[in-house]
Structures are given as structure tokens and as C-alpha cells.
Amino acid sequence: MIRLTIDGRRVESRNGEYLLTLARRAGIEIPTLCHHEAVEPAGACRLCMVEITRPQWNGWSKLVTACLYPAEEGLIVKTSTERVLRTRREVLELLLARSPRAEAVRRLAAQYGILEPKYAVDQEGDNCILCDICTRVCATHVTGAISRVNRGVAKKVATPFDEASDVCVGCMACARSCPTDAIAFSQDGATRAIWGKTFEVVPCTVCGAPTVTREQARWMAQRKGVAEEDFYVCDVCKVAKTGLSCRKVMW
Amino acid sequence: MKQTLATLPVLRAKLKEERSKLRCIMVCCGTGCRARGGMQVADAIRDELSAAGLAGSVPVELTRTGCHGWCEQGPIVTFEPEGVFYTQVKPEKAKEIVASFQSGEPVSKLLFRDTKTKRSIVTYHEIPFYSKQTRWAMRNVGRISPTEIGQYIARDGYKALEKVLSGMTPEDVISEVEKAGLRGRGGGGFDAGRKWRSCRKAKGDVKYLICNGDEGDPGAFMDRSIMEADPHGVLEGMIIAAYAIGAREGFIYVRQEYPLAVEHLGMAIASARENGLLGENILGTGFSFDIRIARGGGAFVCGESSALMRSIEGKPGEPRAKYVHATDRGLFDRPTVLNNVETFINVPLILDRGAAWFAALGTDGSKGTKAFSVVGKVNHNGLIEVPMGMSLKELIFDVAGGIPKGRTFKAVQTGGPSGGCLPEALLDLPVDFDSLTEAGSMMGSGGLIVMDDRNCMVDVARYFIHFLVEESCGKCVPCRDGLKQLLEILARITKGQGREDDLDKIDSLCFVLTEGSLCALGKSAANPVLSTVRHFREEYEQHIKDHFCRAGVCRDLCRYEITDACTGCTLCAKACPVECIAGDRKQVHVIDQSKCTRCGSCFDVCNFGAVEVRSAR
Amino acid sequence: MESKLMHVFPGKCTACRNCEQACAFAHLHEGRPTRSRIRADADPQLREGKHVLVVCYQCDAAACVAACPANALWRDTETGAINHIAERCIRCGSCVAACPFGNMRWEPLAQHPSKCDLCKGDPVCVRFCPTGAIQYK
User: Quick one: which of C77, C51, C52, C66 has its CA closest to C99?
Assistant: First the structure.
């Protein structure tokens, strides 16, 4: 068992979890924008900075990202020192200048007292803060259709060569996981468009309501070794069918 | 033929014996000299040698060497063992050179002329640029043909490996390197022995060894020179390290922009394998280790160890947090040791000559020698290897020949774009890992860019930040967006649009870069700005408040005027590219400000100090 | 631990929809029966007065769990319920498509799936059912 303190509270960890997990379990709030439980941490947003020290460090301390720093015996963690707060504020200033319209950024910045960015605002800046949640989610759990491309200020999330992806199944996990709603998509009845690719959302074989894209059904069927058609009934019709079969049994 | 522990010493003795009787003409065919026609010079000398029929009693050899590290003097031709040194040789001079080789009479026109004494110097032993250096890491640079393993073996090559495999345990090797106090030459200066030890201790059967030859600092080329000129030295260091940590596979990460280094390393790996020095069952001892070359795309960030490993794995070159060390989880999540080219080339020296010998070189905290790439406003641009602890002053003024054209020294940028600018007041600083870090700069991989009073420090900071904006991987917020904001502010200041609160904003941005960035690139990116603000704050203030760039670099913030000191020599009028200087001979000249582009050519050519830089207002 | 099971008696159901109201209030703090996790519908295909009453079976070999690529569905060992962990969910909708019974629904406002979690061992629908059509024992 690893024992450490976070903001003066004694915390225990069995298997060297990350500081962020431990802090949140102890009810200590640490802001994040690039953290997602479903994927490995990336340390991209730099908001979860905390200050760590040890008695034998003689007053020396350093800032680390809580999302990536594993619990260590005897560590003293402080989550809201002036050094931590200043770093967070400056990071939020930069994010707000980059994506002034992103609601999640605005809300968090306001919490830290920033209403107007002090740096030059990128008027053409989109909502993407390159937290990489979408790319990690897609690569880890779906088909890896999108990735980070280019470098530095030109960096963005895209499909290979910005062309319609061969492997995207149109599941929308990327768009729905995005903390700043930065991924454009459209859904119009039986068609869905995302990442430059248009998908047919297969109508329910009973009532005709949209179910899932053919590509997603195929991908799921392949993974689970079941028939693709199993996925083409909407939940309302499935409930009705279930009810019917129940009644047959009961009556 | 595959060598064994028994046959290698015999081979070495035979090669030594053969080569001691040789006289060599060595032509530098490194990247710099090739660009200036080194290969043609070598071919011309070859033809001339066969025409002269020099096959008599003394065997003669024409050797194409790797880069000497003094490209400004190239193509370089030397005679061994005499040490005669010819500079800037053209193919037409082949006949004279061969004649001089036969007669012993030097070709005076091709000799090096000392800038201070104006005297010609015959051998490189007497040229201060060489005589004041201590070349250990670069011991074979320019002395052997990098494509022939025999020449390396004859100069005590693979002797250290032989010693290691003849009875030293991995533990012995690590202790020896620890005792020598070898610190990583790539930038961080981490204790190499300690790194090896923790990797050796790490759990896992598969361990990797990586040689970092990415070398991205603008103007730095010591690793390139070593890889091109002495590839076997790097391999030997790696094989010994692999034995120490228990690795069976290694990678040399070289950028594609170093084609000659890639070629020579590839040839060296092949010939080391043929000779039983690499691959399965090395020297018949049962120890196996092999090396592959991984070619990089030339991204600066891929010199950062964790980004480099991602690049080898075939992923985007993005760093990751190092809270778990690479020695526990590095390449492909296996325990990995990564060291720089220069670190590895020091390893055979330590094992061959002993830790005590190595530790006697350098300072308390920084042992051994360090190769620097000295460029910028110095008389001799090139590679300079000196013992750690030499003062910056000695390095710049004695070895590199001082500042040209009698101008005054202003600053020296150490450690490349991530380092800092040090002013004249710090010139007595000893060059070692700790002193430079303390002064707000860093050793980095050993780049030194010397600047004189014609360099604007704000513009220098802007230049480096621009470089880093281009090279930031873009993964984390402070580095990606912070550098962009920083560049915008610095560019604004150099254009005369600086604002009162800009210095405060610069301070905030430097804070978040240093504290908040994920990797060393971002953490040290503020150094050029922090150090110039710290040591040259008045220059920033002059730019912002007085709209004046005293160095005459920021064109919106200066104008040139000719004072009464003008003798009417007309030199400035001739130099002016837009012909905006008027005046009769022996009369004071006048600049037409409406046409002047503020290029500063007049200022640079004037011998009387009659051209002055003034505020644009 | 032998966990309790949800027992459904469609014959006792009057489609009063108290269960739906209770469920929506308990999980969303507003009474929108359409967003309830239990369904008590008058089935148009059946005779007048007959109703369907459907709630998650917490299947042993659950299709939703198998379909989830992100391991966001976990069985609570105490209650036996398969719980949806919103933090781990990547919102791909695979579970909704995979459930053969229609018990995994899409929550349109929160944009993630929702399912019966047995209210941590004390299902509110059971408490509010006036006829005993749903029992937890």
C-alpha cells in the first residue's frame, strides 16, 4: 500500500494510480480538459498541474501533471498553491485566446477569474484545443480513423490527408466525447456526415426510425461475430417486441 | 573474417605495423568539404599520384577522411605523419600538392594564414585552432578513412571492447563509467553510469539501446562530424553500453539530412558484422548485439528522447511525460538507455584508458572534454573540443580566434535555441554543465553562437522563438500557444509597435512555458528570451519606449547617418545596394533617407566609424 | 453474494406510468416519462387493456457489455446491476444498437446511453408501482 498526502489529507493507493484519480476519489477538485477515463492520459492541456515535494527535498518542489504522475510513497501533493494557480491561469489565458468561443474553456477561465483574454485572440480560432480526446478514443476503442497531423501551431485533428477515411464507421464517439464541441458533423434523417464522409443511418426494419450506420453495424458484427442485421431495429421497437414475448410467456 | 578475442590483437598489431610505414595524403570528404569540391580534389590527387608513379620504396596512401570540423577552410588536405595542412584546395592544385608531398616543400599559397599574426603556418600542430584543442572524442576525426574498419582498428579501435569482453562483468563496466563521471553530452548532462545501472536493474528480458544522432540545433554539427568521420567509435561505445545494460538490440537515430552519416554508419555496421564485432556471438564470446539505423525526418523535437522513441516506433514524434523513466519504460515500453553520439564515443576511451584518466580531465562536476560548435561572429567557425571548465573567453578569443573586423563582443548563445544569451560580464564563466545552467543558459549539445555589437538582442530572441514555433510539436498548450503569443509580441517589438505592458506579458509567457510545458523543448524555450531580458533589458526598453534599435538590425527602428568623421573615401557609396549615398570624393557623404533600406552595408564597410545608427524618430 | 432480481408481472400492469415518472425523477430530476429507463406502454399491437412492461434484465452474458469498446459498462457486484460509467463512455452508441431487448436507450440531452442501475439496490419504480407489477426480491 502506497501512502501519501494530498492537500494535507492522507490518501492510500494500492497499485500506483495517478494522482488525479486519487485526488478526485478524495473529493479534491482538479480541473482538466484533456482527461477522459476511457483512454490513457496524455498530459496535453496542462491544467491538472499540482506541486509535489518530499521532506528530504529541503523545500524544493516541482510542478507535475496529476493525470500522469503515479502515486509514490511519502509524496506530499498540493493542488492549489500560488504556483499551481498561476500556471493554471496562464494556461487558461492561452486557451481562451486560442478558442474564445469554446464554452468549456470560457466556463473554466471564468472560474479562475479570467473573463477577457489578455493575449491576442485568434479570431479565426476554432473550438479545438487539441486535447486529443477524440483521437485517443478513436484509436483506442474504435478504428483509429483520425489522428493529430502537422506540428506546432499548424497541428490539427484530421483523417489521413484530409480525405474521407476508409475506416471511419461514423459512430460519432469523437464528436460526442469532445469537451468543446469542436468536431463538425451533420445528421439529417437517414444520413449522417462527419470527417468529410457521408453515412447512411440504416432505418429500423420495423418502424423506419434511424438506427446505426451500416459501417458501425458491420464493425460491431465483425468484432462480436454476430449478424449485422441484429443492429437494425430501434430501441422502441425492441421494447415492444420484448413486451410481446414476455406476455406470451406469462399468459 | 570473423575475429575473436584471440585474433583481434594480432590483426591490430599487423595493421599498426603496416600503417606505421605509410605516408598519407588525407583529403577531407566530409559534408562541408564535399560541397566545396573535396571529392574532385581527391580524384585529381589520385590521378596525379598515379601519373607521378609514386609507388617506390615508401608506400603511399590517399585517404578520404570524414569531416574535420573546420569547414570554412575546406576542402582540407593534410599529409600524415608530417601534419602539413592545406586549406581551400581546388582540384587544379593537385599537381602542386603531389609535388610538395614528394619534395617536402610546402605550397605557401595553400597554407593557413593566422588572422592575428598574418603569418603562414605549415602544420596543423602549430595552428592555434587545433593546438589549443584537446581532441579526445574527436580523436579519429579527420585522421582516418571512416569507410575502412582497418584504419580504426589500427588506431586502437575495438581495443576497449576486447578488454571488456575479456573478463569484465557488466557491473565492472558500469562502475568504471560511473567512476569516470561521464555525463550525457546531449543536453541534460545526466550521469551516464547511473542511467545504465537503473536500466540494468529494470525488470524485463528485452532492453534497448539508442544512440541519439538527431542533432537539431541550428549551427551545431559535432555529432554529424563524429558519425561521418568515426562511425566505428560510436559503434564500439554502443556495443560496450549494450553489454553493460544487457541489450541485444540497438538503434542509431540519425536525421535524413545527414546522408553521409547514414551512409558511413551503414558501412561501418556492415563491416563490424563481417568482422564479428557486431551481431551474433561477438568476438566469439557468446554476447550478441545488433544495431539498426533509424532515419528521422529532421524534426527538432525528435532530438528529445521520448519523442525520438515514438518516432522509432513509427508514431508521431511527440514527447511524453518522463515521470516513469525510459530506463524502466522507454522504446516499445521496454527498459531503454538513450545516449548521445558524443557520450558513446567517450565510452571506449574510458574503458581503454581507465576511469581515473578520464576523471582527471575537466572540472569536479563535469569530467572529460566537450566538443563545441562555435559559429557566428568569430574568426574561426568550427568544431572545438576542449576540456570542460575552459572559460568562455578562452574558447572564443584564443581557440576560435576572437571577433572579426575589430568589432566588440556582445553575447554568446550557448546550448542552441533552448539555451540562453550570456553577456560579456559572464565571459569568465567556465564552460561546464552546472555553471551554464546556473547562469540561466545550458550546455545543450554544445552549440555556441557568438554575437557582436551588430546583433540586436531582441531580434536574436525573436529568431530563436520563431525557430521554436516552427519546431514545437504542438502537443501541449504552453509550448504550442504560448510560443505563438511570445513570437507575436517579440515581432511587434522589433517592428516598433511594442507596448508598455509587453515586458510583463513576456514574463507571464516565460513563466507558463517553464512551469507548464510537457517536455524539455517547451520548458527551456523561454531561455533565449529570459536571458536576453535579464542581461539586455535596456535594449528591450529602448525598442519599446525610444523606438531605437542600437544594433541597426530592426529596420523600422533605426536610420543610418554619416557624421563629420567621414573622409569621403566613397567606400560606403560603392557598397550601398540602392545607391542612396551621395557625395564627392574627400567630401562628407550624405544618405538619402527616403531611399535608404537600412541594410547597414555602409556601416559595415566604413573604416572611420563615420556611419552612425540613430533612432528612426 | 446472491443478489436480488427484478420480477415483472405484465398482467398486473395498468400502464399507470408511475414507474416511468419515478425513474425519470430519480435519475434526471425531472418527470419526463420518455426518458425513463423502464417502459410501461400500451402496446398498439395488443388487445385493448393489455400492456408491455420492460426493464433491463441485467443479463449474465450481456450484449451491451460485449459491444462496448471502452469497458464503460461494469457489473456492480453488490446489486448485480450492469452500471454505465459515464466518465469512461466514448458515446459511440454501440450498446444501444447491441441490446436485443431495447433496454439500453440513448439519452439525447446528455448524449450518452442510459440504462437501469437498480437504483443502487433500491429501485424507485418498485416503490411507486401501485399494483405490484414490478417486484424486487
Answer: C66
CA distance B312 to chain A (A): 17
Q: C38 vs chain A: nearest CA distance in angstroms?
A: 10
Q: Are the C-beta atoms of B222 and B446 separated by less than 8 Å?
A: yes
Smallest CA–CA distance, residue A23 to chain B, in Å, is: 18
Summarize the confidence of residues B203-228 as an average pLDDT: 93
Write the single-letter amino acid at B508. Answer: S
Question: Region B498-508: what's the mean pLDDT?
Answer: 95
Looking at domain B558-614, its CATH class is alpha beta
Domain boundaries, chain B: 18-127, 149-359, 369-452, 457-546, 558-614
Residue B362 identity (one-letter amino acid): G
Kindly report, residue by residue over C95-137, the tens digit of the pLDDT.
999 999 889 999 888 888 999 999 989 999 999 999 998 999 8
C26 is in which domain, residue-wise?
1-55+119-137
Q: What pTM does this model have?
A: 0.91
Under a CB-based contact definition with an 8 Å cutoff, are residues B148 and B154 in contact?
no
Helix (H) or strand (E) holding B338, with range, is strand B336-340
| Cβ C92 vs Cβ A171: under 8 Å | yes
Beta carbons within 10 angstroms of residue B608's beta carbon: 14
Report pLDDT digits (tens) over A172-191. Answer: 999 999 999 999 999 988 89
- Between CA B37 and CA B39 the distance in angstroms is 6
Q: Which uninterrupted H or E stretch holds C41? A: strand C39-42
Q: For chain B, give me the number of helices (H) and strands (E)?
A: 26, 19
Whether A38 sits inside 8 A of C88 (CB atoms) is: yes
- pLDDT average, residue stretch B255-270: 95
- Number of domains present in the structure of chain A: 2
**pLDDT(B142) > 70:** yes
Q: What is the pLDDT of residues A26-63, one digit of tens each?
A: 999 999 999 999 999 999 999 999 999 999 999 999 99
Q: A18: closest CA among A32, A234, B449, B443?
A: A32
Q: Quote the CA–CA distance of B224 and B342 in Å, as a whole number.
A: 10
Residues 6+ apart with CB under 8 A from B225: B30, B66, B67, B68, B69, B138, B141, B383
C-beta separation of B293 from B262 below 8 A? yes
**pLDDT number for residue B486:** 97
- Cβ of C101 and A250 within 8 Å? no
For the record, the C-alpha cell of A44 comes out as 496535453
Instruction: For C110, name the nearest residue in chain A, comparing CA atoms only.
Output: A176
Neighbouring CB atoms inside 10 A of B587's CB total 12
Let me know the angle formed at the C-alpha of B423 by B417 and B429, rounded to the nearest 5 degrees: 90
Provide Rg for chain A, Cα atoms: 23
Closest B-chain CA to A92: B477
Pair B293, B463: CB distance under 8 Å? no
Beta-carbon separation of B324 and A70 below 8 A: yes
Tell me which chain A residues have a C-beta less than 8 angstroms from the C-beta of C50: 247
- pLDDT at residue C2 in the model: 58
Domain B149-359 listed as CATH 3.30.70.3340: no
User: Are the C-beta atoms of A211 and A233 separated by less than 8 Å?
Assistant: yes
Range of the domain at A30: 2-111
Q: Where are the beta strands (DSSP E) in B195-335?
A: 208-213, 249-255, 290-296
Answer whether residue A153 is part of any domain. Answer: yes
User: The C-alpha cell of C12 is what?
Assistant: 398486473
For position C46, what pLDDT does the model report?
52
Residue B495 pairs with which residues in a beta bridge?
Answer: none
pLDDT at C1: 47
Give the count of beta carbons closer than 10 Å to the beta carbon of residue C7.
12
